[in-house]
Amino acid sequence: MHHDQHNAGGTGAIVRICGFASSTHESKAFEPTAHAFFPFCIDWHDAKKRSFAEQAAMLKELGYEGVSHIWLDGIPERLKTLDDAGLKLYQITMTVDLTPGKPAYDSRFKDVLALVKGRHVQFDLLVGGMKPSDPAGDERAVRVLRQMSDLARDSGSQLLLYPHVGNWIERIEDAVAWPRKSIVPTSA
């Protein structure tokens, strides 16, 4: 696997392209795993609607090392239940909105970064607010992702561009193309 890493303007956290729920991590609290394999999106797709504690117990029993989390709600509880079970929070999915005049991301992002500091959590960014692949979003995306990257710098977190149908970053090609022309730190 080839990795390019560009650092321009002192921007901190790495912006990566996310195409699947797999992670490489190094953490003092957990043994390094070359490629972690973990459940993604269980917040919504748990047919039994288990609590975070029940999910953690189930994941531990099934042999998983951790899980991902959808949105910024309930992060303190998720972290406590995972810590209690000896599991890791690998990823948090959140939205970025490029719509002019709207807040670009959840105001709780900075607080969540403080909660996950040193845990090497990845933030899967669903980037919307513009027509898919519309180059008119490039300039705002660069500003927003630089700002988010700067906020994430000291937390040890990574920002991942998560292509999703109907979003501005809809295809892997979108996630790869615009960062290369924009000077946002990338690794792909």
Tell me about this structure.
The chain has six helices and eight strands, in the order E-E-E-H-H-E-H-E-H-E-H-E-H-E. With 188 residues, it is an alpha/beta fold. The strands form two sheets. A six-stranded parallel sheet has the order 4-5-6-7-1-8. It has a two-stranded antiparallel ribbon with strand order 2-3. Helix 2 packs parallel to helix 3 (75-85). The longest helix is centred in the C-terminal third of the chain and has 15 residues, at 138-152. The radius of gyration is 16 Å and the shape is globular.
Sum up the structure in keywords.
single chain; 188 residues; alpha/beta; TIM Barrel; 30% helix; 21% strand; disordered C terminus
Q: Secondary structure elements and their pairing?
A:
Elements: E1 15-17, E2 22-25, E3 33-37, H1 42-45, H2 52-62, E4 66-70, H3 75-85, E5 88-97, H4 109-115, E6 122-128, H5 138-152, E7 158-161, H6 172-180, E8 186-187
Parallel strand pairs: 1-7, 1-8, 4-5, 5-6, 6-7
Antiparallel strand pairs: 2-3
- CATH homologous superfamily caption: Divalent-metal-dependent TIM barrel enzymes
CATH architecture: Alpha-Beta Barrel
Helix content: 25-40%
Tell me the count of domains: 1
Mean of residue pLDDT? 80
Low-confidence stretches: 1-32, 183-188
Number of strands: 8
Beta-strand level of the residues, as a percent range?
A: 15-25%
The chain-level structural class is: alpha/beta
Separate helix tally: 6
Quick one: CATH class? Alpha Beta
Helices and strands, in order, run as EEEHHEHEHEHEHE
Shape: globular
Oligomer status: single chain
The first-to-last residue Cα distance is 9 Å
What is Rg? Answer: 16 Å
- Strand order across the largest sheet: 4-5-6-7-1-8
What name is given to the CATH topology? TIM Barrel
Biggest pleated sheet: 6 strands, parallel
